[in-house]
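Q: My labmate handed me this sequence with no annotations at all. I'd like to see what the chain might look like in three dimensions before we decide whether it's worth expressing. Could you predict it?
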Amino acid sequence: MQEGLFPKINPHLWGDVVISTETAGREAREAGITPSERFQFLLIHGLLHLIGYDHEVSRSEARRMESKTREIMARIIADKKEESRMQIPRLAVNVDHVATVRQARMINEPDPVIAAGIAELAGAEGIIVHLREDRRHIQDRDLLVLKETVKSKLNLEMAAAEEIIRMALKVRPHLVTLVPEKRQELTTEGGLDVRRQQQALKETIKRLHKGGMAVSLFVDADPEQIRAAKEAGADIIELHTGHYAEAKNEKKAWQLLERIKTGAQLGSQLGLKISAGHGLNYLNIKRFQGLEEIEEYSIGHSIIARALYVGLDQAVREMVALVEQLY
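A: Here is what I predict for the chain of 327 residues:
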């Protein structure tokens, strides 16, 4: 490529690495490794040739090339381990408020199922719905259809009430989040008192686990509640961020955020997966920068509110970008 009429068209050209996928696949099977592992090795091998290594020159050069290959492979493995430890956080979108608008007129639009599809296409990695006992927004039909259509992960928020437990066991969403529920409240006002309900919650979690569902408990960032959640058998805790979101001044907000951070660290140390949500918006989420323990943020109202101005697709994409920047 550096000969002929245009030898200087790319003065920094090293050359090409050409890998036969059929050969790489056969060699992977023979070595008992994955094709991607063999491909990775061959790519490193080819690049080393391009920068001057050549195992065919002598035995010492072959050893030098092999040593360099192992060094690079080890660094790649170490980097992957570090990446798995520090995952980019995910966004799960709550579509309850789409159903709230629908139920205001008791008709069939706007449809939270369609909203869920748009949110997923825009980058959401989970869909959340709260099936309340009074059915004030999400209906049984919504949950049934969402279970068949959600491509990422369906998270059912619910009280530990027998009727709703049976519904969860029938539908079997990917994840169930147990939350406190009061008929008179506009929205969830705080975390579960797991410590006082520990035995009852433990039995509920066992039933949901038998149904093949992971279980999250919605709790305040209180060490006693977090430890109780672990003892009750939860897989995940979702830390309640509502008090932080409602803080009247910067000082209070930072104090509450520090409490959430401490709670996330404790939960992680106990082996729980950590998510967070309630009242988070496009401004107050920025303070969560660098909080590594939180793997997922559950956000609904602020996204649906912004969607009135810019559209749901754009609103979700903007929040996905903010969440990913917290890494």
